[in-house]
């Protein structure tokens, strides 16, 4: 806990003590103390509505309660300079800010781990992207990858034990279509007549895979029987597509701890086991030759078929087995990041979790809404280069990874995102990722100048007293709280917002103060050390988002 957090907790404790001293409530009646940071500095460093919260309990007017609290607060112990009562009973606190300078050595001592919370002893699994391995990742997958990876970084820094997982949909009809498409392209590469199947994959990658196979195997595969040849093409096509997916994701800064194959559920007894478990718990019934899941028992709008009349499974059945497998691995919480088209699927999966004997809250689903690309002020529907949907790879080549990672995380994932490609590559303050990265580069430039002046970490930090310096220190102190809030609310944009606010506070300080002054080396040394803390904090924040922190721009 840093000095800002300690001071806040201390103030909360002193407010509780004042409530007890003033006989406004008993200990078990005191509501949670809520402290907010007012937007207007004229309203102090912190404000509380405790007087309004106590009105019903104390049976007094909030303003009178506020006066009682003010009279009973130990200002020295709480580090308060001044208390104002505003409006119907808001209490505004103006703090003695000398404690803020303690943040500088705290940040420098913690380094890359500044902002990290203590271990919470809770295992969370986050499953995201999970695109069919049959082609290139599109913009929805790209946004899901950025949001998922950033959320995992946030949860990790908030003290959770996090595992990233990709569910490979390698058992459905799409893989059959990939297999027969590859077989057709192989035949064509050998110069033989072979029509592409109606639902086949027309992409250039499959054409290339066919040519590569001819180079590798010649016409040997024609000698195999149909079953062997099919199995070969299936394995080869899947391996090549996954290789491409992994390469693109790795370049995008996203790596998974586990790649889970849907086929493995069929090869093991996991689907049979989960069906038996649901049956033993009385959660299934037979009707019209099919096996049904009583999902309405758990809030779904209708019961769902698990085994169709022809004996085949619905999509839901292996999904239930997969979630049973996840939970059997000891995760306390599962977070699935799904596209908006899966919204209606959530109630049935939560129903399945509950029917298996778990708490429905153990499964959370974050929805990723669509991305609209804009270039030259116009909405882009297709790639100008290929005439097809714009892919993750194309956008990386066009605007760069940093802009993508930042832009995809800077809005709530359940809201539509308009991605302005021109803004993403512009070197201007209107581009938020440039604005934050420029703040880091500016600090690095100041530090280089400081080193040339011979400044060291041996500094008198009590010389840091100006309003702009205090604003900067307060903002630095907010990182742990921002991470904790982002983790609790699953809000990646809380971190991009914080990064932007920190950059703005730094630029404001830089424009108002002479940071380094050869005629005042003592103050320069103190500010040099402050700038080191700023650099570390920006660096840590950008690392969470998956964005680089350049030293020169």
What can you see in these coordinates?
The protein is of the alpha/beta class and 553 residues long. It has 21 helices and 15 strands. The strands form four sheets. Strands 7-6-5-11-12 form a five-stranded parallel β-sheet, sandwiched between helices. It has a four-stranded antiparallel β-sheet with strand order 1-2-4-3. The protein has a three-stranded antiparallel β-sheet with strand order 8-9-10. The longest helix has 26 residues, at 226-251. The protein is globular, with a radius of gyration of 29 Å. The model has no long low-confidence stretch (mean pLDDT 94). Keywords: Aminoacyl-tRNA synthetase, ATP-binding, Coiled coil, Cytoplasm, Ligase, Nucleotide-binding, Protein biosynthesis. It is found in: Cytoplasm. A motif ('HIGH' region) lies at residues 131-141.
């Amino acid at each position: 806990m840093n000095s800002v957090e300690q001071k806040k907790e201390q103030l909360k404790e002193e407010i509780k003590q004042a409530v007890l001293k003033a006989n406004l409530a008993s200990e078990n009646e005191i509501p949670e103390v809520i402290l907010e940071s007012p937007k207007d500095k004229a309203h102090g460093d912190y404000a509380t509505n405790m007087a309004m919260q106590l009105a019903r309990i104390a049976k007094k007017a909030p303003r009178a309660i506020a006066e009682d609290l003010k009279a009973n607060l130990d200002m020295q112990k709480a580090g308060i300079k001044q208390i104002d009562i505003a409006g119907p009973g808001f209490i505004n606190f103006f703090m003695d800010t000398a404690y803020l300078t303690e943040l500088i050595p705290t940040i420098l001592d913690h380094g890359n781990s500044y902002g990290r919370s203590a271990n919470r002893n809770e295992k969370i699994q986050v499953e995201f992207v999970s695109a069919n391995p049959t082609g290139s990742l599109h913009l929805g997958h790209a946004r899901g990858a950025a949001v998922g990876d950033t959320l995992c970084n946030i949860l990790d820094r908030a003290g959770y034990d996090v595992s990233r997982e990709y569910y490979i949909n390698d058992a459905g009809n799409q893989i059959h279509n990939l297999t027969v498409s590859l077989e057709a392209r192989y035949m064509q590469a050998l110069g033989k007549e072979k029509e592409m199947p109606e639902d086949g994959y027309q992409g250039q990658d499959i054409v290339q895979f066919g040519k590569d196979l001819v180079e590798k195997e010649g016409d040997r595969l024609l000698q195999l029987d149909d079953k062997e040849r099919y199995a070969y093409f299936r394995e080869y096509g899947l391996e090549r597509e996954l290789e491409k997916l992994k390469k693109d994701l790795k370049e995008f800064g996203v790596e998974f701890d586990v790649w889970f194959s849907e086929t493995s559920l069929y090869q093991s007894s996991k689907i049979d086991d989960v069906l038996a478990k649901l049956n033993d718990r009385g959660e299934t019934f037979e009707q019209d030759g099919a096996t049904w899941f009583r999902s309405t028992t758990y809030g779904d709008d209708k019961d769902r078929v698990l085994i169709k009349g022809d004996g085949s499974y619905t999509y839901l059945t292996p999904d239930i087995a997969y979630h049973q497998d996840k939970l059997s691995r000891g995760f306390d919480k599962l977070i699935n990041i799904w596209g908006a088209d899966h919204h209606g699927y959530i109630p049935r999966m939560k129903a399945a979790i509950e029917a298996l004997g778990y708490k429905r809250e153990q499964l959370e689903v974050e929805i990723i809404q669509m991305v609209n690309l804009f270039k030259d002020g116009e909405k882009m529907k297709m790639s100008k280069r290929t005439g097809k949907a714009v892919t993750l790879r194309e956008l990386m080549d066009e605007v760069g990874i940093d802009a993508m990672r930042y832009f995809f995380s800077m809005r709530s994932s359940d809201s539509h995102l308009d991605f302005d490609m021109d803004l993403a590559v512009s070197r201007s303050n209107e581009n938020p990722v440039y604005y934050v990265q420029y703040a880091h580069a500016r600090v690095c430039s100041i530090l280089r100048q400081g080193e040339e002046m011979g400044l060291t970490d041996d500094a008198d930090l009590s010389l840091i007293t100006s309003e702009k310096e205090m604003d900067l220190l307060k903002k630095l102190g907010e990182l742990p709280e921002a991470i904790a809030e982002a983790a609790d609310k699953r809000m990646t944009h809380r971190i991009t917002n914080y990064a932007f606010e920190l950059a703005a506070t730094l630029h404001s300080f830089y424009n108002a103060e002479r940071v380094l002054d050869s005629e005042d080396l003592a103050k320069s040394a103190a500010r040099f050390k402050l700038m080191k803390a700023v650099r570390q904090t920006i660096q840590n924040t950008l690392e969470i988002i998956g964005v680089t922190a350049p030293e020169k721009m």
